Amino acid sequence: MNLIVAVDKNWGIGCNNRLLVRIPNDQKFFRQETTGKVIVLGRKTLETFPNGLPLQNRLNIILSKDPSYKVKDAIVVHSISELLEELKKYNSRDIYIIGGDSVYKQMLPYCDVAHVTKIEQVYEADSYFPNLDEMDEWTITADSEEQTYFDIEYTFLKYERKSKK
User: Fold this and answer.
1) Mean pLDDT over residues 130-134, rounded?
2) Contact predicate 116/17, CB 8 Å
3) Could you report the per-residue pLDDT of 4-59, keeping only the tens digit for each?
4) CATH for 51
């Protein structure tokens, strides 16, 4: 299973239920990685999308504790165990966890690959992604040249969970 996220230098991912910054190349990378795939996200993340609607050309699975929560054109699950059961129907290589912070934290143990856009700035943030650089079980297996968007420098990193020996 995959995670895909953009983080600042402090591994911040959002503030007031919004992305810290929008970088067109990062959004393009997100589209390329997730189109035609299964994406898993929380209700609050869904509410940040245009008109609060699921992303097109993807199977959207929404995690919400509210048992009455329904979303047109999406599957809604109400617990991690229910989510894991639903995900058994799909190839794990085609599953992308896309946020927010509580969904990332709960699903990190089940993921083997993390696509991280690391932004070389610090923003005001109130939600964070776990710092993979501080976790022995994760290692960087690919990184891009440094990219620049106006005055924002960033790199695309691929982290993979080290295989258990």
Assistant:
1) 98
2) no
3) 999 999 999 999 999 999 999 999 999 999 999 999 999 999 999 989 999 999 99
4) 3.40.430.10
Given a cut of 90, is residue 165 above it in pLDDT? Answer: no
Do 111 and 3 contact (CB within 8 A), yes or no?
yes
- Whether residue 80 is predicted with pLDDT greater than 70 in this model: the reply is yes
Q: How far apart are CA 102 and CA 127, in angstroms?
A: 9
Q: Quote the CA–CA distance of 78 and 97 in Å, as a whole number.
A: 16
DSSP, collapsed to helix, strand or coil, labels residue 67 as: coil
Structural domain range at position 119:
2-161
Number of structural domains in the chain: 1
Q: What is the distance between the alpha carbons of residues 140 and 151, in angstroms, rounded to a whole number?
A: 25
As beta bridge partners, residue 14 has 19, 127
CA-to-CA distance for 21 and 94, rounded, in angstroms?
A: 26
pLDDT value of residue 109: 97
Asked whether 11 and 129 are in contact (CB, 8 A), the reply is: yes
98-109: burial string, b at 16+ Cβ within 10 Å, e else:
bbbbebbeebbe
